[in-house]
Amino acid sequence: MRSLPQPPGEPDSRSADRYLLWLARREWRSLLWASLLLGTYTVGTVLLSASVGAALDAGIGDPRSLLTWFGILTALIAVGTAITPVLHRATCFNWYASAYRTVQVVTRRSVDLGPTLTRRLPSGEVVAVGTEDIDQVAALYEDAVFGAAGIAGTVAAGAFMLTAHTDLGLVVLVAVPLIMLGVVPVLRPLARRQDHQRTRQAELTTRATDLVAGLRVLRGVGGEHAVGERYRAESQYVRAAGVRVGWMDAALSALRELYPGLLLIGIVWYGARLALAGEITVGQLVAFYGYTLNLAAAVRHLMYFTSRYISARVAAGRVVRILGLVHDLPDPDEPAEAPAGLCGLSDPAGGVSAPAGLVTGVVCADPADATATADRLGRYRDGDTLLVDGAGHAVHLRDLPLREVRRRVLVADNTAHLFSGPLREELSPDGGLSEERLAEVVHAAAAEDVVRRSPEGWDAVLTERGREYSGGQQQRLRLARALALDPEILVLVEPASAVDAHSEAAVAERLAAERAGRTTVLLTTSPLLLDRTDRVQFVEGGRVVAEGTHRELLATVPRYAETVLRTAFDEEGP
Protein backbone atom coordinates (compact mmCIF):
# COMPACT_ATOMS: atom_id res chain seq x y z
CA MET A 1 0.00 0.00 0.00
CA ARG A 2 1.21 3.50 -0.85
CA SER A 3 0.14 6.40 1.32
CA LEU A 4 -1.38 9.60 -0.02
CA PRO A 5 -0.65 12.43 -0.25
CA GLN A 6 3.05 12.18 -0.96
CA PRO A 7 5.69 14.95 -0.66
CA PRO A 8 4.90 17.23 -3.61
CA GLY A 9 8.39 18.45 -4.56
CA GLU A 10 9.16 21.60 -6.54
CA PRO A 11 6.95 21.92 -9.65
CA ASP A 12 8.16 23.06 -13.07
CA SER A 13 5.89 26.04 -13.69
CA ARG A 14 7.53 27.40 -16.84
CA SER A 15 4.63 26.21 -19.02
CA ALA A 16 1.59 23.94 -18.97
CA ASP A 17 3.41 21.20 -20.88
CA ARG A 18 6.40 21.32 -18.55
CA TYR A 19 4.11 21.08 -15.53
CA LEU A 20 2.32 18.05 -16.97
CA LEU A 21 5.69 16.46 -17.75
CA TRP A 22 6.86 17.17 -14.19
CA LEU A 23 3.79 15.39 -12.81
CA ALA A 24 4.46 12.43 -15.09
CA ARG A 25 8.07 12.22 -13.92
CA ARG A 26 6.99 12.27 -10.28
CA GLU A 27 4.67 9.28 -10.83
CA TRP A 28 6.42 7.51 -13.70
CA ARG A 29 6.54 4.16 -11.90
CA SER A 30 2.81 4.10 -11.27
CA LEU A 31 2.06 5.35 -14.79
CA LEU A 32 4.34 2.73 -16.29
CA TRP A 33 2.76 -0.02 -14.19
CA ALA A 34 -0.78 0.96 -15.22
CA SER A 35 0.29 1.27 -18.86
CA LEU A 36 1.87 -2.20 -18.77
CA LEU A 37 -1.32 -3.62 -17.29
CA LEU A 38 -3.63 -2.16 -19.93
CA GLY A 39 -1.06 -2.85 -22.64
CA THR A 40 -0.97 -6.49 -21.57
CA TYR A 41 -4.76 -6.60 -21.53
CA THR A 42 -4.90 -5.08 -25.04
CA VAL A 43 -2.29 -7.45 -26.43
CA GLY A 44 -4.25 -10.27 -24.79
CA THR A 45 -7.36 -9.35 -26.78
CA VAL A 46 -5.28 -9.41 -29.98
CA LEU A 47 -3.94 -12.84 -29.00
CA LEU A 48 -7.50 -13.94 -28.33
CA SER A 49 -8.47 -13.05 -31.92
CA ALA A 50 -5.39 -14.82 -33.25
CA SER A 51 -6.19 -17.91 -31.17
CA VAL A 52 -9.78 -18.08 -32.42
CA GLY A 53 -8.56 -17.90 -36.03
CA ALA A 54 -5.88 -20.50 -35.45
CA ALA A 55 -8.37 -22.81 -33.73
CA LEU A 56 -10.72 -22.61 -36.71
CA ASP A 57 -7.90 -23.41 -39.14
CA ALA A 58 -6.60 -26.26 -36.98
CA GLY A 59 -10.02 -27.83 -36.81
CA ILE A 60 -11.92 -28.53 -33.61
CA GLY A 61 -13.25 -31.97 -34.42
CA ASP A 62 -10.41 -33.63 -32.56
CA PRO A 63 -11.17 -33.66 -28.78
CA ARG A 64 -7.51 -33.12 -27.91
CA SER A 65 -7.28 -30.11 -30.24
CA LEU A 66 -10.57 -28.79 -28.89
CA LEU A 67 -9.34 -29.05 -25.28
CA THR A 68 -6.03 -27.43 -26.19
CA TRP A 69 -7.60 -24.38 -27.78
CA PHE A 70 -10.24 -24.23 -25.07
CA GLY A 71 -7.44 -24.10 -22.49
CA ILE A 72 -5.59 -21.37 -24.40
CA LEU A 73 -8.71 -19.20 -24.75
CA THR A 74 -9.63 -19.77 -21.10
CA ALA A 75 -6.13 -18.77 -19.97
CA LEU A 76 -6.24 -15.55 -22.04
CA ILE A 77 -9.66 -14.65 -20.65
CA ALA A 78 -8.53 -15.47 -17.09
CA VAL A 79 -5.47 -13.21 -17.45
CA GLY A 80 -7.65 -10.37 -18.72
CA THR A 81 -10.11 -10.87 -15.87
CA ALA A 82 -7.32 -10.85 -13.27
CA ILE A 83 -5.76 -7.71 -14.73
CA THR A 84 -9.00 -5.67 -14.59
CA PRO A 85 -9.22 -4.96 -10.79
CA VAL A 86 -5.47 -4.36 -10.52
CA LEU A 87 -5.66 -1.95 -13.46
CA HIS A 88 -8.57 -0.09 -11.88
CA ARG A 89 -6.64 0.33 -8.66
CA ALA A 90 -3.57 1.60 -10.54
CA THR A 91 -5.55 4.17 -12.55
CA CYS A 92 -7.33 5.38 -9.41
CA PHE A 93 -3.97 5.81 -7.69
CA ASN A 94 -2.72 7.85 -10.66
CA TRP A 95 -5.76 10.13 -10.36
CA TYR A 96 -5.37 10.65 -6.63
CA ALA A 97 -1.60 11.06 -6.74
CA SER A 98 -1.65 13.74 -9.45
CA ALA A 99 -4.69 15.49 -7.95
CA TYR A 100 -3.21 15.57 -4.44
CA ARG A 101 0.15 16.73 -5.76
CA THR A 102 -1.49 19.58 -7.67
CA VAL A 103 -3.59 20.49 -4.63
CA GLN A 104 -0.46 20.55 -2.49
CA VAL A 105 1.63 22.76 -4.77
CA VAL A 106 -1.27 25.16 -5.45
CA THR A 107 -2.18 25.39 -1.77
CA ARG A 108 1.43 25.86 -0.74
CA ARG A 109 1.92 28.61 -3.30
CA SER A 110 -1.37 30.27 -2.30
CA VAL A 111 -0.27 30.33 1.34
CA ASP A 112 3.12 31.77 0.35
CA LEU A 113 1.50 34.46 -1.78
CA GLY A 114 -1.03 35.44 0.88
CA PRO A 115 -2.80 38.71 -0.04
CA THR A 116 -0.76 38.87 -3.26
CA LEU A 117 -2.92 36.08 -4.70
CA THR A 118 -6.22 37.92 -4.25
CA ARG A 119 -4.69 41.13 -5.58
CA ARG A 120 -3.39 39.44 -8.73
CA LEU A 121 -6.25 37.01 -9.48
CA PRO A 122 -10.01 37.25 -8.96
CA SER A 123 -11.46 34.91 -6.36
CA GLY A 124 -13.43 33.01 -8.99
CA GLU A 125 -10.25 32.08 -10.83
CA VAL A 126 -8.76 30.57 -7.69
CA VAL A 127 -11.98 28.70 -6.87
CA ALA A 128 -12.23 27.33 -10.42
CA VAL A 129 -8.68 25.98 -10.21
CA GLY A 130 -9.59 24.06 -7.08
CA THR A 131 -12.93 22.76 -8.33
CA GLU A 132 -12.40 22.17 -12.05
CA ASP A 133 -8.79 22.38 -13.23
CA ILE A 134 -7.32 19.98 -10.70
CA ASP A 135 -9.86 17.36 -11.75
CA GLN A 136 -8.97 17.83 -15.44
CA VAL A 137 -5.25 17.45 -14.74
CA ALA A 138 -5.84 14.33 -12.65
CA ALA A 139 -8.09 12.82 -15.34
CA LEU A 140 -5.21 12.98 -17.82
CA TYR A 141 -3.05 10.68 -15.69
CA GLU A 142 -5.95 8.40 -14.90
CA ASP A 143 -6.56 7.96 -18.64
CA ALA A 144 -2.91 8.10 -19.74
CA VAL A 145 -3.05 4.31 -19.97
CA PHE A 146 -5.34 4.65 -22.99
CA GLY A 147 -2.50 6.21 -24.97
CA ALA A 148 -0.21 3.32 -24.14
CA ALA A 149 -2.99 0.82 -24.84
CA GLY A 150 -3.67 2.43 -28.21
CA ILE A 151 -0.04 2.13 -29.24
CA ALA A 152 0.24 -1.45 -27.94
CA GLY A 153 -2.96 -2.53 -29.67
CA THR A 154 -1.94 -0.94 -32.97
CA VAL A 155 1.53 -2.49 -32.94
CA ALA A 156 0.28 -5.96 -31.91
CA ALA A 157 -2.58 -6.08 -34.43
CA GLY A 158 -0.36 -4.65 -37.18
CA ALA A 159 2.35 -7.22 -36.47
CA PHE A 160 -0.10 -10.16 -36.71
CA MET A 161 -1.57 -8.74 -39.92
CA LEU A 162 1.88 -8.27 -41.46
CA THR A 163 2.72 -11.84 -40.59
CA ALA A 164 -0.47 -13.17 -42.18
CA HIS A 165 -0.63 -10.81 -45.19
CA THR A 166 1.91 -8.08 -45.88
CA ASP A 167 -0.35 -5.76 -47.89
CA LEU A 168 -3.12 -5.84 -45.29
CA GLY A 169 -0.66 -5.16 -42.47
CA LEU A 170 0.84 -2.21 -44.33
CA VAL A 171 -2.62 -0.76 -44.93
CA VAL A 172 -3.28 -0.83 -41.21
CA LEU A 173 0.06 0.68 -40.21
CA VAL A 174 -0.44 3.54 -42.69
CA ALA A 175 -4.12 4.10 -41.95
CA VAL A 176 -3.79 4.61 -38.18
CA PRO A 177 -1.38 7.61 -38.39
CA LEU A 178 -3.57 9.14 -41.12
CA ILE A 179 -6.62 8.77 -38.88
CA MET A 180 -4.79 10.56 -36.04
CA LEU A 181 -3.81 13.37 -38.39
CA GLY A 182 -7.44 13.62 -39.44
CA VAL A 183 -8.52 14.78 -35.97
CA VAL A 184 -5.82 17.48 -35.67
CA PRO A 185 -8.00 20.21 -37.29
CA VAL A 186 -10.55 19.72 -34.49
CA LEU A 187 -8.09 19.91 -31.60
CA ARG A 188 -7.01 23.53 -31.89
CA PRO A 189 -10.59 24.96 -31.98
CA LEU A 190 -11.50 22.65 -29.10
CA ALA A 191 -8.60 23.96 -26.97
CA ARG A 192 -9.49 27.56 -27.82
CA ARG A 193 -13.16 27.11 -26.93
CA GLN A 194 -12.33 25.26 -23.71
CA ASP A 195 -10.03 28.08 -22.65
CA HIS A 196 -12.73 30.67 -23.40
CA GLN A 197 -15.38 28.68 -21.53
CA ARG A 198 -13.02 28.22 -18.58
CA THR A 199 -12.39 31.99 -18.42
CA ARG A 200 -16.11 32.75 -18.49
CA GLN A 201 -16.71 30.20 -15.76
CA ALA A 202 -14.08 31.81 -13.53
CA GLU A 203 -15.66 35.23 -14.05
CA LEU A 204 -19.08 33.87 -13.15
CA THR A 205 -17.68 32.20 -10.03
CA THR A 206 -16.17 35.54 -9.00
CA ARG A 207 -19.55 37.17 -9.49
CA ALA A 208 -21.23 34.48 -7.40
CA THR A 209 -18.79 34.80 -4.49
CA ASP A 210 -19.15 38.59 -4.52
CA LEU A 211 -22.93 38.24 -4.62
CA VAL A 212 -23.06 35.85 -1.66
CA ALA A 213 -20.59 37.90 0.38
CA GLY A 214 -22.54 41.13 -0.15
CA LEU A 215 -26.08 39.75 -0.15
CA ARG A 216 -27.16 41.50 3.04
CA VAL A 217 -25.82 44.84 1.82
CA LEU A 218 -27.48 44.40 -1.58
CA ARG A 219 -30.81 43.67 0.07
CA GLY A 220 -30.40 46.73 2.25
CA VAL A 221 -29.89 49.10 -0.68
CA GLY A 222 -32.33 47.37 -3.01
CA GLY A 223 -29.67 46.16 -5.44
CA GLU A 224 -30.40 42.46 -5.17
CA HIS A 225 -32.58 42.36 -8.32
CA ALA A 226 -30.11 44.29 -10.49
CA VAL A 227 -27.17 42.12 -9.47
CA GLY A 228 -29.26 38.98 -9.91
CA GLU A 229 -30.12 39.99 -13.47
CA ARG A 230 -26.47 40.64 -14.21
CA TYR A 231 -25.54 37.24 -12.83
CA ARG A 232 -28.27 35.63 -14.94
CA ALA A 233 -26.94 37.30 -18.09
CA GLU A 234 -23.35 36.23 -17.39
CA SER A 235 -24.47 32.66 -16.67
CA GLN A 236 -26.01 32.59 -20.14
CA TYR A 237 -22.63 33.58 -21.61
CA VAL A 238 -21.07 30.65 -19.75
CA ARG A 239 -23.81 28.33 -20.99
CA ALA A 240 -23.27 29.47 -24.57
CA ALA A 241 -19.51 28.94 -24.23
CA GLY A 242 -20.18 25.47 -22.84
CA VAL A 243 -22.44 24.67 -25.78
CA ARG A 244 -19.70 25.69 -28.21
CA VAL A 245 -17.28 23.41 -26.38
CA GLY A 246 -19.91 20.68 -26.54
CA TRP A 247 -20.22 21.02 -30.32
CA MET A 248 -16.49 20.58 -30.79
CA ASP A 249 -16.36 17.72 -28.31
CA ALA A 250 -19.27 16.06 -30.10
CA ALA A 251 -17.46 16.48 -33.43
CA LEU A 252 -14.37 14.85 -31.94
CA SER A 253 -16.49 12.01 -30.54
CA ALA A 254 -18.10 11.53 -33.95
CA LEU A 255 -14.69 11.30 -35.59
CA ARG A 256 -13.66 8.85 -32.88
CA GLU A 257 -16.40 6.52 -34.12
CA LEU A 258 -16.34 7.39 -37.84
CA TYR A 259 -12.68 6.83 -38.66
CA PRO A 260 -12.30 3.48 -36.86
CA GLY A 261 -15.63 2.39 -38.41
CA LEU A 262 -14.38 3.19 -41.90
CA LEU A 263 -11.19 1.29 -41.13
CA LEU A 264 -13.23 -1.66 -39.92
CA ILE A 265 -15.37 -1.71 -43.08
CA GLY A 266 -12.35 -1.42 -45.36
CA ILE A 267 -10.34 -4.18 -43.72
CA VAL A 268 -13.29 -6.59 -43.52
CA TRP A 269 -14.12 -5.95 -47.17
CA TYR A 270 -10.53 -6.41 -48.26
CA GLY A 271 -10.08 -9.49 -46.07
CA ALA A 272 -13.26 -11.07 -47.45
CA ARG A 273 -11.94 -10.62 -50.98
CA LEU A 274 -8.65 -12.21 -50.01
CA ALA A 275 -10.51 -15.16 -48.42
CA LEU A 276 -12.65 -15.64 -51.56
CA ALA A 277 -9.50 -15.54 -53.67
CA GLY A 278 -7.96 -18.20 -51.45
CA GLU A 279 -5.08 -15.98 -50.31
CA ILE A 280 -6.09 -16.28 -46.67
CA THR A 281 -7.98 -18.98 -44.77
CA VAL A 282 -11.37 -18.67 -43.09
CA GLY A 283 -9.64 -18.69 -39.72
CA GLN A 284 -7.40 -15.83 -40.82
CA LEU A 285 -10.46 -13.88 -41.99
CA VAL A 286 -12.08 -14.31 -38.58
CA ALA A 287 -8.81 -13.30 -36.95
CA PHE A 288 -8.58 -10.25 -39.23
CA TYR A 289 -12.06 -9.22 -38.14
CA GLY A 290 -10.93 -9.46 -34.49
CA TYR A 291 -7.76 -7.53 -35.27
CA THR A 292 -9.83 -4.81 -36.89
CA LEU A 293 -12.04 -4.52 -33.81
CA ASN A 294 -8.90 -4.26 -31.71
CA LEU A 295 -7.53 -1.59 -34.04
CA ALA A 296 -10.77 0.38 -33.87
CA ALA A 297 -10.59 0.30 -30.08
CA ALA A 298 -6.89 1.28 -30.19
CA VAL A 299 -7.63 4.28 -32.42
CA ARG A 300 -10.47 5.37 -30.15
CA HIS A 301 -8.12 5.07 -27.17
CA LEU A 302 -5.53 7.28 -28.86
CA MET A 303 -8.11 9.89 -29.81
CA TYR A 304 -9.63 9.83 -26.33
CA PHE A 305 -6.20 10.33 -24.77
CA THR A 306 -5.58 13.25 -27.15
CA SER A 307 -8.81 14.98 -26.12
CA ARG A 308 -7.94 14.42 -22.46
CA TYR A 309 -4.55 15.98 -23.03
CA ILE A 310 -6.12 19.07 -24.62
CA SER A 311 -8.41 19.58 -21.61
CA ALA A 312 -5.59 18.95 -19.13
CA ARG A 313 -3.29 21.35 -20.96
CA VAL A 314 -5.85 24.16 -20.65
CA ALA A 315 -6.30 23.36 -16.94
CA ALA A 316 -2.55 23.11 -16.33
CA GLY A 317 -2.15 26.56 -17.85
CA ARG A 318 -4.37 27.95 -15.10
CA VAL A 319 -2.46 26.05 -12.43
CA VAL A 320 0.84 27.34 -13.78
CA ARG A 321 -0.54 30.87 -13.72
CA ILE A 322 -0.90 30.63 -9.93
CA LEU A 323 2.43 28.88 -9.45
CA GLY A 324 4.18 31.54 -11.53
CA LEU A 325 2.90 34.55 -9.59
CA VAL A 326 5.62 36.63 -7.96
CA HIS A 327 5.09 37.77 -4.39
CA ASP A 328 4.63 41.49 -3.86
CA LEU A 329 7.14 41.18 -1.01
CA PRO A 330 9.87 38.83 -2.22
CA ASP A 331 12.46 37.40 0.15
CA PRO A 332 15.86 39.12 0.15
CA ASP A 333 18.66 37.55 -1.85
CA GLU A 334 20.89 37.60 1.25
CA PRO A 335 18.68 37.40 4.36
CA ALA A 336 19.87 39.18 7.48
CA GLU A 337 20.22 37.44 10.82
CA ALA A 338 17.21 38.09 13.01
CA PRO A 339 17.80 39.42 16.54
CA ALA A 340 17.58 36.75 19.21
CA GLY A 341 15.34 36.94 22.25
CA LEU A 342 12.19 38.96 22.77
CA CYS A 343 11.83 41.82 20.28
CA GLY A 344 9.66 44.82 19.62
CA LEU A 345 8.72 46.76 16.49
CA SER A 346 9.49 50.24 15.22
CA ASP A 347 7.76 51.88 12.25
CA PRO A 348 9.69 54.98 11.13
CA ALA A 349 7.10 55.75 8.43
CA GLY A 350 4.44 56.54 11.03
CA GLY A 351 6.58 56.93 14.15
CA VAL A 352 4.87 54.02 15.91
CA SER A 353 7.09 51.93 18.18
CA ALA A 354 6.22 48.91 20.29
CA PRO A 355 8.93 48.12 22.88
CA ALA A 356 9.68 44.51 23.65
CA GLY A 357 7.55 42.94 26.37
CA LEU A 358 5.04 45.80 26.66
CA VAL A 359 1.41 46.29 25.62
CA THR A 360 1.31 49.35 23.38
CA GLY A 361 -1.91 51.05 22.36
CA VAL A 362 -2.11 52.90 19.04
CA VAL A 363 -5.03 55.25 18.40
CA CYS A 364 -5.54 56.52 14.84
CA ALA A 365 -7.81 59.48 14.12
CA ASP A 366 -8.31 58.07 10.61
CA PRO A 367 -9.18 54.33 10.40
CA ALA A 368 -7.18 54.13 7.16
CA ASP A 369 -4.05 54.96 9.17
CA ALA A 370 -4.76 52.01 11.46
CA THR A 371 -4.95 49.64 8.48
CA ALA A 372 -1.75 51.05 6.98
CA THR A 373 0.08 50.82 10.31
CA ALA A 374 -0.97 47.20 10.85
CA ASP A 375 0.14 46.32 7.31
CA ARG A 376 3.57 47.86 7.85
CA LEU A 377 4.05 46.29 11.28
CA GLY A 378 3.25 42.84 9.89
CA ARG A 379 5.04 43.47 6.58
CA TYR A 380 1.95 43.15 4.44
CA ARG A 381 3.24 46.15 2.56
CA ASP A 382 6.78 47.39 2.03
CA GLY A 383 8.19 49.84 4.53
CA ASP A 384 11.10 50.54 6.87
CA THR A 385 9.68 48.69 9.88
CA LEU A 386 12.38 47.39 12.22
CA LEU A 387 12.54 44.35 14.48
CA VAL A 388 14.29 45.62 17.63
CA ASP A 389 15.62 43.51 20.52
CA GLY A 390 15.95 44.57 24.14
CA ALA A 391 19.53 45.82 23.62
CA GLY A 392 18.51 48.12 20.78
CA HIS A 393 19.86 45.99 17.93
CA ALA A 394 17.55 46.30 14.94
CA VAL A 395 17.03 44.72 11.51
CA HIS A 396 14.57 45.70 8.80
CA LEU A 397 11.68 43.29 8.32
CA ARG A 398 12.29 43.44 4.56
CA ASP A 399 15.76 41.97 5.16
CA LEU A 400 14.28 38.85 6.79
CA PRO A 401 12.63 35.89 5.04
CA LEU A 402 8.88 36.38 4.99
CA ARG A 403 8.33 33.06 6.78
CA GLU A 404 10.50 34.31 9.66
CA VAL A 405 8.46 37.50 9.85
CA ARG A 406 5.18 35.53 9.88
CA ARG A 407 6.56 33.23 12.57
CA ARG A 408 7.44 36.09 14.89
CA VAL A 409 4.77 38.69 14.09
CA LEU A 410 1.04 37.92 13.94
CA VAL A 411 -1.45 40.52 12.73
CA ALA A 412 -5.02 39.61 13.75
CA ASP A 413 -7.90 41.70 12.42
CA ASN A 414 -11.62 41.22 11.93
CA THR A 415 -11.28 40.00 8.34
CA ALA A 416 -9.65 36.75 9.53
CA HIS A 417 -11.55 33.69 8.30
CA LEU A 418 -13.26 31.20 10.59
CA PHE A 419 -13.16 27.73 9.04
CA SER A 420 -15.72 24.97 9.31
CA GLY A 421 -14.89 22.07 11.61
CA PRO A 422 -14.65 21.24 15.33
CA LEU A 423 -14.06 24.18 17.65
CA ARG A 424 -10.99 22.42 19.08
CA GLU A 425 -9.35 22.29 15.62
CA GLU A 426 -10.27 25.91 14.93
CA LEU A 427 -8.43 27.13 18.01
CA SER A 428 -5.57 24.62 17.75
CA PRO A 429 -5.18 23.47 14.12
CA ASP A 430 -2.15 21.30 14.89
CA GLY A 431 -3.81 19.74 17.93
CA GLY A 432 -0.93 20.76 20.16
CA LEU A 433 -2.93 22.54 22.88
CA SER A 434 -4.39 20.77 25.89
CA GLU A 435 -7.93 21.44 27.05
CA GLU A 436 -6.50 23.40 29.99
CA ARG A 437 -4.64 25.74 27.65
CA LEU A 438 -7.66 26.03 25.37
CA ALA A 439 -9.73 27.02 28.39
CA GLU A 440 -7.16 29.69 29.29
CA VAL A 441 -7.19 31.39 25.88
CA VAL A 442 -10.97 31.19 25.65
CA HIS A 443 -11.18 32.78 29.10
CA ALA A 444 -8.74 35.51 28.06
CA ALA A 445 -10.95 36.26 25.05
CA ALA A 446 -14.12 36.17 27.21
CA ALA A 447 -15.52 33.51 24.88
CA GLU A 448 -16.67 30.94 27.44
CA ASP A 449 -20.27 31.36 26.29
CA VAL A 450 -19.30 30.07 22.84
CA VAL A 451 -18.01 26.82 24.34
CA ARG A 452 -20.98 26.46 26.69
CA ARG A 453 -23.45 27.09 23.87
CA SER A 454 -23.20 23.53 22.55
CA PRO A 455 -23.34 20.32 24.63
CA GLU A 456 -20.42 18.99 22.54
CA GLY A 457 -18.12 21.62 24.07
CA TRP A 458 -14.74 21.60 22.30
CA ASP A 459 -16.09 19.16 19.72
CA ALA A 460 -18.88 21.50 18.62
CA VAL A 461 -18.76 21.91 14.85
CA LEU A 462 -18.50 25.41 13.39
CA THR A 463 -20.06 26.18 10.04
CA GLU A 464 -18.13 28.14 7.41
CA ARG A 465 -17.15 31.58 8.77
CA GLY A 466 -18.87 30.67 12.06
CA ARG A 467 -22.17 32.05 10.76
CA GLU A 468 -24.16 30.42 13.57
CA TYR A 469 -22.50 32.85 16.02
CA SER A 470 -23.09 36.55 16.46
CA GLY A 471 -20.56 39.11 15.28
CA GLY A 472 -19.24 39.57 18.79
CA GLN A 473 -18.86 35.84 19.35
CA GLN A 474 -17.02 35.46 16.06
CA GLN A 475 -14.70 38.29 17.05
CA ARG A 476 -13.90 36.68 20.39
CA LEU A 477 -13.22 33.35 18.67
CA ARG A 478 -10.72 35.08 16.38
CA LEU A 479 -9.06 36.65 19.41
CA ALA A 480 -8.89 33.27 21.21
CA ARG A 481 -7.31 31.68 18.14
CA ALA A 482 -4.70 34.44 17.93
CA LEU A 483 -3.88 34.08 21.63
CA ALA A 484 -3.64 30.29 21.25
CA LEU A 485 -0.83 30.74 18.73
CA ASP A 486 1.08 32.68 21.39
CA PRO A 487 3.21 34.71 18.94
CA GLU A 488 6.24 36.64 20.04
CA ILE A 489 4.68 39.85 18.71
CA LEU A 490 0.89 40.18 18.42
CA VAL A 491 -0.75 43.06 16.54
CA LEU A 492 -4.49 43.25 17.26
CA VAL A 493 -6.76 45.49 15.19
CA GLU A 494 -9.94 46.45 17.07
CA PRO A 495 -10.25 43.09 18.84
CA ALA A 496 -13.41 44.05 20.78
CA SER A 497 -15.27 46.43 18.47
CA ALA A 498 -18.30 44.14 18.05
CA VAL A 499 -18.77 42.94 21.64
CA ASP A 500 -20.97 44.32 24.41
CA ALA A 501 -19.54 46.56 27.14
CA HIS A 502 -19.39 43.76 29.72
CA SER A 503 -17.41 41.46 27.39
CA GLU A 504 -15.20 44.34 26.30
CA ALA A 505 -14.28 45.07 29.92
CA ALA A 506 -13.51 41.39 30.50
CA VAL A 507 -11.30 41.25 27.38
CA ALA A 508 -9.47 44.40 28.49
CA GLU A 509 -8.75 42.99 31.93
CA ARG A 510 -7.71 39.51 30.82
CA LEU A 511 -5.78 40.37 27.66
CA ALA A 512 -3.06 42.27 29.50
CA ALA A 513 -2.54 39.37 31.90
CA GLU A 514 -2.49 36.81 29.08
CA ARG A 515 0.15 38.77 27.13
CA ALA A 516 2.28 39.74 30.12
CA GLY A 517 5.98 39.76 29.22
CA ARG A 518 5.36 39.63 25.45
CA THR A 519 5.10 42.34 22.84
CA THR A 520 1.55 43.38 22.00
CA VAL A 521 0.21 46.20 19.83
CA LEU A 522 -3.43 47.22 20.18
CA LEU A 523 -4.74 49.31 17.28
CA THR A 524 -8.01 50.44 18.83
CA THR A 525 -10.10 53.37 20.02
CA SER A 526 -11.63 51.41 22.93
CA PRO A 527 -11.09 53.32 26.21
CA LEU A 528 -11.42 50.09 28.19
CA LEU A 529 -8.62 48.40 26.25
CA LEU A 530 -6.42 51.49 26.14
CA ASP A 531 -6.67 51.95 29.91
CA ARG A 532 -4.95 48.57 30.35
CA THR A 533 -1.97 49.32 28.09
CA ASP A 534 1.51 50.31 29.23
CA ARG A 535 1.67 53.27 26.84
CA VAL A 536 -0.44 54.80 24.09
CA GLN A 537 0.54 56.58 20.87
CA PHE A 538 -1.85 58.89 19.04
CA VAL A 539 -1.59 58.95 15.23
CA GLU A 540 -3.01 61.83 13.23
CA GLY A 541 -2.24 62.62 9.63
CA GLY A 542 -0.30 59.36 9.35
CA ARG A 543 2.22 60.29 12.09
CA VAL A 544 2.48 59.88 15.88
CA VAL A 545 1.66 63.29 17.36
CA ALA A 546 1.33 62.41 21.04
CA GLU A 547 2.43 59.69 23.44
CA GLY A 548 1.76 58.79 27.06
CA THR A 549 -0.65 56.78 29.17
CA HIS A 550 -4.29 56.67 28.23
CA ARG A 551 -5.34 58.97 31.09
CA GLU A 552 -2.54 61.45 30.42
CA LEU A 553 -3.57 61.78 26.77
CA LEU A 554 -7.23 62.15 27.72
CA ALA A 555 -6.32 65.07 29.95
CA THR A 556 -3.83 66.80 27.66
CA VAL A 557 -4.71 66.04 24.01
CA PRO A 558 -8.26 67.11 23.01
CA ARG A 559 -8.10 65.42 19.61
CA TYR A 560 -7.17 62.15 21.31
CA ALA A 561 -10.07 62.47 23.74
CA GLU A 562 -12.41 63.32 20.86
CA THR A 563 -11.30 60.23 18.93
CA VAL A 564 -11.49 57.85 21.88
CA LEU A 565 -14.62 59.19 23.58
CA ARG A 566 -16.31 60.20 20.28
CA THR A 567 -17.10 63.59 21.84
CA ALA A 568 -16.48 67.02 20.33
CA PHE A 569 -14.14 69.29 22.36
CA ASP A 570 -13.50 73.02 22.27
CA GLU A 571 -11.12 75.21 24.23
CA GLU A 572 -13.33 75.08 27.34
CA GLY A 573 -13.81 71.31 27.31
CA PRO A 574 -16.33 68.79 25.98
Automatic annotation (TrEMBL):
InterPro entries, per the entry: ABC1_TM_dom, ABC1_TM_sf, ABC_transporter-like_ATP-bd, ABC_transporter-like_CS, P-loop_NTPase, Type_1_exporter
Highest taxon above the source species: Bacteria
Compartments, record wording: Cell membrane
Regions that span the bilayer: 31-54, 66-87, 144-162, 168-191, 258-276, 282-303
Keywords: Membrane, Transmembrane, Transmembrane helix
GO molecular function: ABC-type oligopeptide transporter activity; ATP binding; ATP hydrolysis activity
PROSITE patterns according to UniProt: ABC_TM1F (PS50929), ABC_TRANSPORTER_1 (PS00211), ABC_TRANSPORTER_2 (PS50893)
GO cellular component, one term: plasma membrane
Chief place of localization: membrane
Membrane topology: Multi-pass membrane protein
CDD domains per record: ABC_6TM_exporters
Start and end residues of each ABC transmembrane type-1 domain: 32-311
ABC transporter domain: residues covered: 290-566
Entry protein name: ABC-type multidrug transport system fused ATPase/permease subunit
Protein species of origin: Nocardiopsis algeriensis
